[in-house]
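Two proteins follow. First one:
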Amino acid sequence: MEGYAKLAALMGAYPEAAILRRFGALGMQNLLYLQAELVQLESEFRHCSNENDNSENIYRAVFSKDWVTLAGYNDGEEEQWALALRIREKLKEYGQALLLQTQLSDMKQPRPQDLAFLQKWMKRPSMGCVYLLGQDSDIWEKPERTDLVALNRCKSEGVFSLWVTETVIHQYHQLVGKYFRKPESAVYSANTVHYSQEGLSRIVSLVAMSFSSLLPIAAVTALYCVNSMSARLGMMAGFTVLFTLCFGILTNARSTDVFTATTAFAAVQVVFIGTSGVTT
Protein backbone atom coordinates (compact mmCIF):
# COMPACT_ATOMS: atom_id res chain seq x y z
CA MET A 1 0.00 0.00 0.00
CA GLU A 2 1.48 3.31 -1.09
CA GLY A 3 0.59 6.90 -1.92
CA TYR A 4 -3.03 7.98 -1.82
CA ALA A 5 -4.24 4.56 -0.68
CA LYS A 6 -1.95 4.59 2.37
CA LEU A 7 -2.86 8.18 3.24
CA ALA A 8 -6.56 7.42 2.85
CA ALA A 9 -6.22 4.36 5.12
CA LEU A 10 -4.70 6.53 7.86
CA MET A 11 -7.40 9.20 7.55
CA GLY A 12 -10.12 6.57 7.51
CA ALA A 13 -8.82 4.92 10.69
CA TYR A 14 -8.08 8.18 12.52
CA PRO A 15 -10.60 10.85 11.43
CA GLU A 16 -8.77 13.54 13.39
CA ALA A 17 -5.96 13.14 10.85
CA ALA A 18 -8.39 13.64 7.94
CA ILE A 19 -7.25 17.16 7.09
CA LEU A 20 -8.19 18.58 3.71
CA ARG A 21 -8.48 21.91 1.93
CA ARG A 22 -11.86 23.60 1.77
CA PHE A 23 -10.91 25.64 -1.33
CA GLY A 24 -12.71 28.61 0.16
CA ALA A 25 -11.56 31.13 -2.46
CA LEU A 26 -12.57 28.89 -5.35
CA GLY A 27 -15.92 28.17 -3.73
CA MET A 28 -16.62 31.86 -3.29
CA GLN A 29 -15.52 32.61 -6.85
CA ASN A 30 -17.91 29.96 -8.10
CA LEU A 31 -20.72 31.57 -6.09
CA LEU A 32 -19.87 34.97 -7.54
CA TYR A 33 -20.01 33.56 -11.07
CA LEU A 34 -23.36 31.91 -10.39
CA GLN A 35 -24.66 35.11 -8.86
CA ALA A 36 -23.53 37.10 -11.91
CA GLU A 37 -25.24 34.63 -14.24
CA LEU A 38 -28.47 34.90 -12.26
CA VAL A 39 -28.33 38.69 -12.31
CA GLN A 40 -27.98 38.60 -16.09
CA LEU A 41 -30.78 36.07 -16.50
CA GLU A 42 -33.01 38.10 -14.19
CA SER A 43 -32.40 41.23 -16.24
CA GLU A 44 -33.22 39.43 -19.49
CA PHE A 45 -36.32 37.84 -17.96
CA ARG A 46 -37.68 41.16 -16.65
CA HIS A 47 -37.07 42.83 -20.00
CA CYS A 48 -38.76 40.01 -21.89
CA SER A 49 -41.67 40.00 -19.45
CA ASN A 50 -42.24 43.75 -19.86
CA GLU A 51 -42.19 43.41 -23.65
CA ASN A 52 -44.78 40.65 -23.54
CA ASP A 53 -46.99 42.59 -21.13
CA ASN A 54 -47.14 45.42 -23.69
CA SER A 55 -47.42 43.12 -26.71
CA GLU A 56 -50.32 43.42 -29.16
CA ASN A 57 -50.38 39.62 -29.29
CA ILE A 58 -53.32 38.64 -27.08
CA TYR A 59 -51.56 35.46 -25.94
CA ARG A 60 -48.27 37.11 -25.04
CA ALA A 61 -50.08 39.90 -23.24
CA VAL A 62 -51.42 37.42 -20.64
CA PHE A 63 -48.12 35.57 -19.98
CA SER A 64 -47.77 37.36 -16.63
CA LYS A 65 -51.29 36.32 -15.61
CA ASP A 66 -51.72 32.85 -17.07
CA TRP A 67 -49.01 30.27 -16.47
CA VAL A 68 -50.66 27.69 -18.76
CA THR A 69 -50.51 30.09 -21.71
CA LEU A 70 -46.92 31.07 -20.86
CA ALA A 71 -45.75 27.45 -20.75
CA GLY A 72 -47.88 26.13 -23.58
CA TYR A 73 -47.84 28.92 -26.17
CA ASN A 74 -45.54 28.09 -29.07
CA ASP A 75 -44.90 30.48 -31.93
CA GLY A 76 -41.20 29.77 -32.23
CA GLU A 77 -40.23 32.67 -29.97
CA GLU A 78 -41.15 31.47 -26.47
CA GLU A 79 -38.17 33.27 -24.94
CA GLN A 80 -39.80 34.16 -21.62
CA TRP A 81 -40.61 30.56 -20.69
CA ALA A 82 -37.17 29.37 -21.85
CA LEU A 83 -35.57 32.01 -19.60
CA ALA A 84 -37.77 30.90 -16.70
CA LEU A 85 -36.56 27.32 -17.11
CA ARG A 86 -32.90 28.42 -17.28
CA ILE A 87 -33.38 30.52 -14.15
CA ARG A 88 -34.96 27.55 -12.37
CA GLU A 89 -31.94 25.34 -13.06
CA LYS A 90 -29.45 28.07 -12.22
CA LEU A 91 -31.24 28.90 -8.95
CA LYS A 92 -31.05 25.25 -7.96
CA GLU A 93 -27.33 25.14 -8.74
CA TYR A 94 -26.76 28.42 -6.90
CA GLY A 95 -28.74 27.34 -3.83
CA GLN A 96 -26.87 24.04 -3.57
CA ALA A 97 -23.52 25.78 -3.93
CA LEU A 98 -24.51 28.41 -1.35
CA LEU A 99 -25.57 25.78 1.21
CA LEU A 100 -22.43 23.73 0.57
CA GLN A 101 -20.21 26.78 1.01
CA THR A 102 -22.03 27.62 4.25
CA GLN A 103 -21.39 24.11 5.59
CA LEU A 104 -17.73 24.27 4.59
CA SER A 105 -17.35 27.66 6.27
CA ASP A 106 -18.71 26.19 9.52
CA MET A 107 -16.11 23.42 9.56
CA LYS A 108 -13.26 23.91 12.01
CA GLN A 109 -9.57 24.17 11.28
CA PRO A 110 -7.45 21.20 12.42
CA ARG A 111 -5.70 21.25 15.75
CA PRO A 112 -2.01 22.17 15.43
CA GLN A 113 -0.94 18.86 16.98
CA ASP A 114 -3.04 16.85 14.50
CA LEU A 115 -1.55 18.71 11.55
CA ALA A 116 1.95 18.28 12.98
CA PHE A 117 1.37 14.53 13.37
CA LEU A 118 0.18 14.22 9.77
CA GLN A 119 3.23 16.12 8.50
CA LYS A 120 5.55 13.93 10.58
CA TRP A 121 3.78 10.74 9.51
CA MET A 122 4.12 11.59 5.83
CA LYS A 123 7.83 12.43 6.15
CA ARG A 124 9.27 9.71 8.35
CA PRO A 125 10.39 6.47 6.66
CA SER A 126 9.58 4.59 9.87
CA MET A 127 5.96 5.76 9.77
CA GLY A 128 3.93 6.58 6.68
CA CYS A 129 6.63 7.84 4.32
CA VAL A 130 4.08 9.08 1.80
CA TYR A 131 5.37 11.41 -0.89
CA LEU A 132 2.89 12.56 -3.50
CA LEU A 133 4.23 13.61 -6.88
CA GLY A 134 1.57 16.03 -8.10
CA GLN A 135 0.92 19.67 -7.30
CA ASP A 136 -0.95 18.55 -4.20
CA SER A 137 2.27 17.21 -2.65
CA ASP A 138 2.78 20.22 -0.37
CA ILE A 139 -0.82 20.80 0.78
CA TRP A 140 0.06 19.74 4.34
CA GLU A 141 3.73 20.74 4.35
CA LYS A 142 3.17 24.37 3.35
CA PRO A 143 -0.48 24.73 4.18
CA GLU A 144 -2.78 27.70 3.90
CA ARG A 145 -3.91 27.07 7.45
CA THR A 146 -7.11 29.09 7.16
CA ASP A 147 -8.12 26.93 4.19
CA LEU A 148 -7.61 23.59 5.95
CA VAL A 149 -10.48 21.75 7.61
CA ALA A 150 -10.62 18.70 9.86
CA LEU A 151 -13.39 16.24 9.11
CA ASN A 152 -13.62 15.17 12.74
CA ARG A 153 -11.86 17.68 14.94
CA CYS A 154 -11.98 16.88 18.64
CA LYS A 155 -14.24 19.04 20.73
CA SER A 156 -12.96 22.32 22.08
CA GLU A 157 -10.49 21.75 24.89
CA GLY A 158 -9.43 23.75 27.89
CA VAL A 159 -5.88 24.86 28.60
CA PHE A 160 -5.26 21.95 30.95
CA SER A 161 -6.54 19.40 28.45
CA LEU A 162 -4.28 20.82 25.74
CA TRP A 163 -1.31 20.61 28.10
CA VAL A 164 -2.11 16.97 28.88
CA THR A 165 -2.48 15.94 25.23
CA GLU A 166 0.48 17.92 23.92
CA THR A 167 3.01 17.55 26.75
CA VAL A 168 2.07 15.12 29.51
CA ILE A 169 1.07 12.24 27.25
CA HIS A 170 4.41 12.34 25.42
CA GLN A 171 6.36 12.30 28.67
CA TYR A 172 4.14 9.53 30.01
CA HIS A 173 4.73 7.39 26.93
CA GLN A 174 8.51 7.85 27.09
CA LEU A 175 8.65 6.92 30.78
CA VAL A 176 5.86 4.38 31.25
CA GLY A 177 3.49 4.00 28.32
CA LYS A 178 6.01 2.45 25.92
CA TYR A 179 6.15 -0.65 28.12
CA PHE A 180 2.39 -1.19 27.87
CA ARG A 181 1.44 0.17 24.46
CA LYS A 182 3.16 -1.20 21.40
CA PRO A 183 3.08 0.36 17.93
CA GLU A 184 0.17 -0.78 15.84
CA SER A 185 0.75 -3.41 13.20
CA ALA A 186 -1.31 -1.95 10.34
CA VAL A 187 0.82 -0.82 7.42
CA TYR A 188 -0.56 2.73 7.57
CA SER A 189 0.14 3.07 11.30
CA ALA A 190 3.56 1.43 11.61
CA ASN A 191 5.57 2.73 14.59
CA THR A 192 2.56 4.78 15.66
CA VAL A 193 1.01 4.61 19.12
CA HIS A 194 -2.52 5.89 19.46
CA TYR A 195 -4.00 7.17 22.70
CA SER A 196 -7.77 7.57 22.67
CA GLN A 197 -8.93 11.16 22.91
CA GLU A 198 -11.99 9.96 24.79
CA GLY A 199 -9.77 8.33 27.41
CA LEU A 200 -7.69 11.48 27.83
CA SER A 201 -10.84 13.56 28.11
CA ARG A 202 -12.11 11.28 30.89
CA ILE A 203 -8.86 11.75 32.81
CA VAL A 204 -9.10 15.52 32.46
CA SER A 205 -12.74 15.43 33.57
CA LEU A 206 -11.80 13.32 36.59
CA VAL A 207 -9.13 15.84 37.61
CA ALA A 208 -11.58 18.73 37.15
CA MET A 209 -14.28 16.99 39.23
CA SER A 210 -11.78 16.15 41.97
CA PHE A 211 -10.69 19.77 42.09
CA SER A 212 -14.29 21.00 42.20
CA SER A 213 -14.89 18.76 45.22
CA LEU A 214 -11.68 19.54 47.11
CA LEU A 215 -11.46 23.32 46.71
CA PRO A 216 -14.72 24.13 48.58
CA ILE A 217 -13.63 21.80 51.40
CA ALA A 218 -10.21 23.45 51.51
CA ALA A 219 -11.77 26.91 51.53
CA VAL A 220 -14.19 26.13 54.38
CA THR A 221 -11.44 24.43 56.40
CA ALA A 222 -9.12 27.41 55.99
CA LEU A 223 -11.86 29.87 56.92
CA TYR A 224 -12.71 27.80 60.00
CA CYS A 225 -9.14 28.11 61.25
CA VAL A 226 -9.18 31.93 61.02
CA ASN A 227 -11.13 34.04 63.50
CA SER A 228 -10.52 37.52 62.12
CA MET A 229 -13.32 38.78 59.88
CA SER A 230 -10.98 40.89 57.76
CA ALA A 231 -8.68 37.90 57.27
CA ARG A 232 -11.64 35.70 56.35
CA LEU A 233 -12.86 38.20 53.74
CA GLY A 234 -9.38 38.39 52.24
CA MET A 235 -9.12 34.61 52.11
CA MET A 236 -12.58 34.35 50.57
CA ALA A 237 -11.54 36.75 47.81
CA GLY A 238 -8.36 34.73 47.21
CA PHE A 239 -10.15 31.38 47.08
CA THR A 240 -12.79 32.81 44.73
CA VAL A 241 -10.16 34.11 42.31
CA LEU A 242 -8.31 30.79 42.51
CA PHE A 243 -11.53 28.90 41.81
CA THR A 244 -12.28 31.07 38.76
CA LEU A 245 -8.78 30.64 37.32
CA CYS A 246 -8.74 26.88 37.84
CA PHE A 247 -12.27 26.47 36.51
CA GLY A 248 -11.27 28.30 33.35
CA ILE A 249 -8.04 26.31 32.95
CA LEU A 250 -9.41 22.86 33.71
CA THR A 251 -12.55 23.13 31.57
CA ASN A 252 -13.71 24.66 28.33
CA ALA A 253 -16.78 26.14 30.01
CA ARG A 254 -18.42 29.25 28.65
CA SER A 255 -18.01 32.53 30.48
CA THR A 256 -21.60 32.35 31.72
CA ASP A 257 -20.95 28.91 33.23
CA VAL A 258 -17.79 30.18 34.92
CA PHE A 259 -19.71 33.15 36.33
CA THR A 260 -22.50 30.91 37.67
CA ALA A 261 -20.10 28.43 39.28
CA THR A 262 -18.01 31.22 40.82
CA THR A 263 -21.11 32.88 42.25
CA ALA A 264 -22.21 29.60 43.84
CA PHE A 265 -18.73 29.02 45.28
CA ALA A 266 -18.61 32.52 46.75
CA ALA A 267 -22.11 32.04 48.21
CA VAL A 268 -20.97 28.92 50.07
CA GLN A 269 -18.16 30.89 51.68
CA VAL A 270 -20.44 33.81 52.56
CA VAL A 271 -22.94 31.47 54.25
CA PHE A 272 -20.16 29.83 56.25
CA ILE A 273 -18.71 33.16 57.37
CA GLY A 274 -22.17 34.47 58.30
CA THR A 275 -23.06 31.47 60.43
CA SER A 276 -19.77 31.00 62.26
CA GLY A 277 -18.42 33.00 65.14
CA VAL A 278 -15.67 35.52 64.42
CA THR A 279 -13.59 38.13 66.18
CA THR A 280 -12.86 41.56 64.80
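Second one, unrelated to the first:
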Amino acid sequence: MVQSYDKIRASRIFHDLLRLLQFLSAVISLGLFSHRLRQIHRLERRTTTSNGAVEGILAAAVLYTLTLLLMRCLLRNKSVPKLLRWLLIALDLAFMGAFIAVAVLTRPKGELASSPGVIQALAVS
Protein backbone atom coordinates (compact mmCIF):
# COMPACT_ATOMS: atom_id res chain seq x y z
CA MET A 1 0.00 0.00 0.00
CA VAL A 2 2.79 2.42 0.88
CA GLN A 3 4.61 1.68 -2.37
CA SER A 4 1.43 2.42 -4.34
CA TYR A 5 1.05 5.77 -2.55
CA ASP A 6 4.66 6.66 -3.35
CA LYS A 7 4.09 5.89 -7.04
CA ILE A 8 0.99 8.10 -7.13
CA ARG A 9 2.83 10.91 -5.37
CA ALA A 10 5.81 10.62 -7.73
CA SER A 11 3.44 10.66 -10.69
CA ARG A 12 1.77 13.85 -9.44
CA ILE A 13 5.12 15.55 -8.88
CA PHE A 14 6.26 14.54 -12.36
CA HIS A 15 2.99 15.86 -13.85
CA ASP A 16 3.37 19.16 -11.98
CA LEU A 17 6.96 19.53 -13.18
CA LEU A 18 5.89 18.90 -16.78
CA ARG A 19 3.15 21.55 -16.51
CA LEU A 20 5.64 24.00 -15.00
CA LEU A 21 8.07 23.30 -17.83
CA GLN A 22 5.24 23.84 -20.32
CA PHE A 23 4.42 27.19 -18.70
CA LEU A 24 8.04 28.35 -18.63
CA SER A 25 8.47 27.32 -22.25
CA ALA A 26 5.45 29.36 -23.31
CA VAL A 27 6.53 32.42 -21.28
CA ILE A 28 10.10 32.35 -22.60
CA SER A 29 8.89 31.84 -26.19
CA LEU A 30 6.48 34.75 -25.87
CA GLY A 31 9.17 36.99 -24.40
CA LEU A 32 11.75 36.16 -27.06
CA PHE A 33 9.30 36.50 -29.93
CA SER A 34 7.91 39.80 -28.60
CA HIS A 35 11.46 41.15 -28.38
CA ARG A 36 12.15 39.99 -31.95
CA LEU A 37 8.90 41.50 -33.17
CA ARG A 38 9.78 44.83 -31.53
CA GLN A 39 13.13 44.82 -33.35
CA ILE A 40 11.44 44.06 -36.68
CA HIS A 41 8.94 46.85 -36.13
CA ARG A 42 11.74 49.26 -35.18
CA LEU A 43 13.67 48.45 -38.38
CA GLU A 44 10.81 48.30 -40.90
CA ARG A 45 7.87 50.01 -39.16
CA ARG A 46 5.57 47.18 -40.25
CA THR A 47 4.73 43.63 -39.27
CA THR A 48 2.95 40.79 -41.01
CA THR A 49 -0.24 39.06 -39.94
CA SER A 50 1.69 35.87 -39.25
CA ASN A 51 3.71 37.78 -36.64
CA GLY A 52 0.49 38.71 -34.87
CA ALA A 53 -0.76 35.13 -35.15
CA VAL A 54 2.40 33.75 -33.58
CA GLU A 55 2.24 36.24 -30.73
CA GLY A 56 -1.43 35.46 -30.16
CA ILE A 57 -0.80 31.70 -30.10
CA LEU A 58 2.03 32.14 -27.60
CA ALA A 59 -0.05 34.44 -25.40
CA ALA A 60 -2.92 31.93 -25.44
CA ALA A 61 -0.50 29.16 -24.48
CA VAL A 62 0.74 31.20 -21.51
CA LEU A 63 -2.82 31.86 -20.36
CA TYR A 64 -3.81 28.20 -20.87
CA THR A 65 -0.89 26.78 -18.91
CA LEU A 66 -1.30 29.34 -16.14
CA THR A 67 -4.98 28.37 -15.87
CA LEU A 68 -4.02 24.68 -15.74
CA LEU A 69 -1.50 25.29 -12.99
CA LEU A 70 -4.07 27.19 -10.92
CA MET A 71 -6.70 24.49 -11.49
CA ARG A 72 -4.19 21.83 -10.47
CA CYS A 73 -3.53 23.67 -7.20
CA LEU A 74 -7.21 24.33 -6.48
CA LEU A 75 -8.39 20.81 -7.34
CA ARG A 76 -5.49 19.04 -5.64
CA ASN A 77 -7.48 16.48 -3.66
CA LYS A 78 -10.82 16.66 -5.44
CA SER A 79 -12.01 14.49 -8.25
CA VAL A 80 -12.12 16.17 -11.65
CA PRO A 81 -15.20 15.47 -13.82
CA LYS A 82 -14.58 13.13 -16.73
CA LEU A 83 -15.83 15.68 -19.29
CA LEU A 84 -13.34 18.27 -18.02
CA ARG A 85 -10.50 15.74 -18.28
CA TRP A 86 -11.39 15.00 -21.92
CA LEU A 87 -11.65 18.73 -22.65
CA LEU A 88 -8.19 19.33 -21.21
CA ILE A 89 -6.76 16.47 -23.30
CA ALA A 90 -8.32 18.00 -26.42
CA LEU A 91 -6.87 21.42 -25.53
CA ASP A 92 -3.44 19.89 -24.95
CA LEU A 93 -3.57 18.36 -28.42
CA ALA A 94 -4.76 21.66 -29.90
CA PHE A 95 -1.84 23.51 -28.32
CA MET A 96 0.56 20.90 -29.65
CA GLY A 97 -0.76 21.75 -33.10
CA ALA A 98 -0.48 25.45 -32.29
CA PHE A 99 3.18 25.12 -31.42
CA ILE A 100 3.76 23.24 -34.66
CA ALA A 101 2.14 26.21 -36.43
CA VAL A 102 4.48 28.57 -34.55
CA ALA A 103 7.46 26.51 -35.69
CA VAL A 104 6.27 26.67 -39.30
CA LEU A 105 5.48 30.39 -39.21
CA THR A 106 8.84 31.31 -37.68
CA ARG A 107 11.09 28.98 -39.66
CA PRO A 108 14.23 30.50 -41.14
CA LYS A 109 14.04 31.50 -44.80
CA GLY A 110 10.35 30.68 -44.80
CA GLU A 111 9.51 34.38 -45.23
CA LEU A 112 6.23 33.88 -43.39
CA ALA A 113 6.96 35.60 -40.09
CA SER A 114 9.25 38.35 -41.40
CA SER A 115 10.90 39.57 -44.54
CA PRO A 116 14.38 38.31 -45.50
CA GLY A 117 15.94 41.78 -45.19
CA VAL A 118 14.98 41.98 -41.54
CA ILE A 119 16.48 38.57 -40.79
CA GLN A 120 19.79 39.68 -42.30
CA ALA A 121 19.67 43.01 -40.48
CA LEU A 122 18.98 41.27 -37.16
CA ALA A 123 21.83 38.82 -37.76
CA VAL A 124 24.28 41.72 -38.28
CA SER A 125 23.22 43.67 -35.18
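SUMMARY FIELD: The mean pLDDT is 76. The chain has four helices and no strands.
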